[in-house]
Amino acid sequence: MTSKTVLTKRLSRDALTTPHTGSVAKGRRNTLLRWGLYAILILFALFYLMPLFVMLTTSLKSLEEIRTGSLLALPRDITFAPWAEAWSTACAGTQCEGLRPFFWNSVLMAVPAVAISTVIGALNGYVFAQWRFPGANLFFAAILFGCFIPFQVVLLPMAQMLGLMGLAGTIPGLIFVHVIYGIGFTTLFFRNYYVTIPQELVRAAKVDGAGFFRIFWSIFLPISLPIITVSVIWQFTQIWNDFLFGVSFSGAGSQPVTVALNNIVNSTTGVKAYNVDMASAIIAALPTLLVYVVAGKYFIRGLTAGSVKG
Amino acid sequence: MEWLERNVPKLVLAPSFVAILIFVYGFIGWTAWISLTKSRLMPKYDLDGFGQYGRLFSAPRWDVAMNNLFIFGGLFIVISMVLGLMLAIFLDQKIRAEGVLRTIYLYPMALSLIVTGTAWKWILNPGLGIQQAIRGWGFESFTFDWLIRPEMAIYTIVLAAVWQASGFVMALFLAGLRSVDTEIIRAAQVDGIPTHRIYSAIIIPTMAPIFLSAFIVLAHLAIKAFDLVIALTGGGPGYATDLPATYMYAMAFSRGDLGQAAASAMIMMLVIFAIVVPYLYSELRPRRDQ
């Protein structure tokens, strides 16, 4: 418990970036060992980078070059045709409009779902952290529990429910599903963040006549930028990368990009265009990769907050 | 008005409360109910006992799925933990460019499992992938065709899943290593205790809670594994790489066997609960800090 609390504290200060002084590596420093260490670390870096390298180089080769050349070779003649095809003419199932319409489906789905679930999570977390009432703990536990269920267990009734609500196979239906099953994590993020703020602050504000929303608006919201970032990034990554809900609840016109990517790759019509597959995969991965590169430390914080409830 | 003012917090929570009640607990109840009926293509509500579970456990395909879950889950968790811990310890040795290496190790976690599956499917393609590339270097008899061999295909899923998640485990462990009290470590160094002993006897034992967290996250990922299988092997060859999640999906959406789908979903949930409930219980109980 204690070291867990320490862990979260350290993470919240982004201690990941600074090695501790007086490190264990002191003592006799064997140069050979040092070289070995770097060799292993670089080898693993290559292991993690290899699929990205292969995806990128394959997407820039012609099919002819793919057939005659080596997987690990750099492209001889760089071509961007597979990218154009992946974006606008590749066939996903019977629809041959490339990834573009599905990419926009994902945007239309992810943006509202992220925004709504973050707002709800912020208000819920604020109540759980600062406005406790009898039974609040039990409810919080019930929400936490909901974060862990395998979604297979709600798949069938949700399909029925979306049908009843007239949202089956639509983007609003997908937004609805992602909001419902995202609330657990967003509530958790904000609750754990707001719980560190002394309750005296709320008490003093109440004495001054400020109400529930006023206190939230003028005290809590202004300090929330870091946790809003964590929540938005977490939700965006989850929702953009989702496949299960997408494949279960979307219709022909509302499929998200992950489903379309899978359809393009498994499309059986015509010649297998590996370069187009790889370009499609990169396009589908680009938004979340970009988020990771730009705001990696918030991404890590979301990941660890999901697993370590300090 | 005053009543309203006093109850605003509860009113704010109310929609979430209702939503969680219906869409999590109500839906679990619905699935549990359906798993006890003879539902096929359409849901039926007449209870019929545990017949669906009997069918499930005698289905060879489910047997394969559960076996695969143990093989995949076991290897995925163990390899990711070992690799993650090793990389974390190595990175903790005042490594130059540590930040760059960390970023490289962790980026797969930002990708969709469909993307991961697509990439590895291409790399492992026996005709044009890594096998061919290495043969091209002169190792003519090099063979790496696990993807198309029924008894080996499940290990390709382990490989891709470890690639995706081990960097995350590394980040967890690295944060843990950095939170160990430096005073104790310095004292041990002064006493001349060798580095590997400091790790095995002092640092790693204090990280027990992080091992637990990592285990929970990985186990959870393993049981829910669906996208990766769909993208990498499609459950094949045949149904050799089926996991409970793909079995459930097949029953629900292509076989039109709601009873089997519901029963398999319930088993998945029970497996997760067996792992998560004790963990959540221990996490929530000792809270006396507020």
Mean pLDDT of chain B: 88
Count all strands of chain A and give the number: 0
Order of helices and strands of chain B: HHHHHHHHHHHHH
CATH topology of chain B: MetI-like fold
If you compute it from the alpha carbons, what radius of gyration of chain A comes out, rounded to the nearest whole angstrom? 24 Å
Radius of gyration of chain B, in Å, reads 24 Å
List the quaternary state of the chains: heterodimer
| Shape summary of chain B | globular
Biggest sheet architecture of chain B:
none
What is the total tally of β strands of chain B? 0
Helix content of chain B: over 70%
Terminal CA distance of chain B reads: 30 Å
What is the H-and-E element order of chain A? HHHHHHHHHHHHHH
Counted up, domains of chain A total: 2
Number of helical elements of chain A: 14
CATH level-4 homologous superfamily of the largest domain in chain A: MetI-like
Total of DSSP H or I helical runs spanning 4+ residues of chain B: 13
Q: Let me know the CATH homologous superfamily of chain B.
A: MetI-like
Mean pLDDT of chain A: 85
Query: How far is the first residue's CA from the last residue's CA of chain A?
Result: 8 Å
Describe this structure in words.
Helices cover 71% and strands 0% of the residues of chain A. By secondary structure, chain A is mainly α. Chain A folds into two domains: 30-79, no CATH class; 100-307, MetI-like fold (Orthogonal Bundle), CATH 1.10.3720. The radius of gyration of chain A is 24 Å and the shape is globular. With 290 residues, chain B is mainly alpha-helical. Chain B has one domain (13-284): MetI-like fold (Orthogonal Bundle), CATH 1.10.3720. In chain B, 72% of the residues lie in helices and 0% in strands. Chain B is built from 13 helices and no strands. Chain B has helices spanning 2-34, 51-58, 60-91, 98-106, 113-123, 130-136, 153-178, 182-190, 195-206, 208-224, 227-232, 244-254, 258-284. The two termini of chain B are 30 Å apart. The model of chain B has no long low-confidence stretch (mean pLDDT 88). At the A-B interface, helix 1, helix 2, helix 5, helix 6 and helix 7 of A face helix 1, helix 3, helix 4, helix 5 and helix 6 of B.
